[in-house]
Structures are given as C-alpha cells and as structure tokens.
Specification:
- The protein is mainly alpha-helical and 118 residues long.
- The protein has a single domain, classed as Orthogonal Bundle (Cytochrome Bc1 Complex, Chain D, domain 2).
- The chain has 4 helices and no strands.
- Helix 2 crosses helix 4.
- It starts with a helix and ends in a 5-residue tail after the last helix.
- The model has no long low-confidence stretch (mean pLDDT 89).
- The structure holds heme C.
- Heme C binds next to helix 2, helix 3 and helix 4.
C-alpha cells in the first residue's frame, strides 16, 4: 500500500513538471514602451486596442494568435508575415512597415499585445 502511495506521488510530481514545461514563458518587456511602439507603428492595422478596422488582421483583443510562443511571434514581427491563405489577402510587412525595431522594442511590443485580450 505504501509503495502504491509513493508511486502515486511520484507520478503526480512528474506530471506537474510536464505541464510546467508546456506553459509558454511570456515576454517580460516594458509595457509602457511597448504601447508607444504599438501606437506609432502597429495600431494603423491592428487597431488602437487590438480591434482592427480591416478584415484579415488578427484581433489581438480576442487573443488571436496569442497561443503562439514568443519566439514565433517575435520572428513574425521582425520578418513580417506573408500568408497566402490570409482571408483578405493582407500582408504584414517586416516591423509593421516602420523603422527596424531593436530586440528590446520587439520584446516590449510583444508583451504589450499580450495584454490586449479583453
Ligand atoms: C500593414 C498592416 C500591418 C501593420 C502595420 C502591422 N501588422 Fe501585424 N499583421 C498584419 C496582418 C495582415 C497579419 C496576419 C498575417 C496572416 O495572415 O498570418 C499580422 C499578424 C501579426 C501577428 C501574428 C503573427 C503570427 O505569427 O501569427 C503579430 C504578432 C503582429 N502582426 C504584430 C504586429 C506588430 C507588433 C506590429 C507593429 C510593429 C504590426 N503587427 C504591424 C498586418 C499588419
């Protein structure tokens, strides 16, 4: 019986670690700086509060795309996204079409858009 209990505890501990590994570690950028960048470069397409006016733009206010990892989203921000299946034929230019952002600014703006989900 005792061995059985030990095994149960061990199995739970292992499972906890597996779940912890799957939780994405979110960017920890400066939100005020991220908001500034977003307002200057990104909001023209993505909308002031993550609610875009145009079709074919992910709605950050509804958490769209936010299930992706930081690494994937940072790459999209740096390189832009040309998705042949975009429902409105929309393309996201590298850095949203603005001046290249520093790594810190990419981190900041990503942290900010992760807060837009209502
Ligand atoms: C010219 C319009 C436009 C601007 C400006 C723009 N985006 Fe986008 N963005 C898009 C479109 C369109 C998509 C969706 C592309 C697709 O179909 O996957 C997108 C997708 C994204 C995604 C999701 C990428 C993925 O991997 O799914 C992120 C994150 C993002 N944009 C962040 C930003 C940030 C941050 C800025 C400002 C630096 C910005 N965007 C500026 C049009 C724009």
């Amino acid at each position: 019986m005792y061995v059985c209990k030990m095994f149960f505890v061990l199995a739970c501990t292992c499972l906890t670690f597996v779940f912890m590994l799957q939780v994405p570690v979110f960017a920890e950028g400066n939100l005020a700086e991220g908001k500034k960048v977003f307002g200057i470069v990104c909001s023209s397409c993505h909308g002031d509060s993550g609610m875009p006016d145009l079709p074919g733009i992910p709605v950050f206010a509804e958490g769209e795309r936010m299930e992706k990892t930081d690494d994937v989203l940072k790459k999209s921000i740096r390189n832009g996204v040309e998705n042949p299946n975009n429902p409105a034929g929309q393309v996201m230019p590298p850095f949203g079409g603005g001046d290249p952002l520093t790594d810190k600014q990419v981190e900041d703006v990503l942290s900010y858009i992760r807060t837009l989900k209502k």
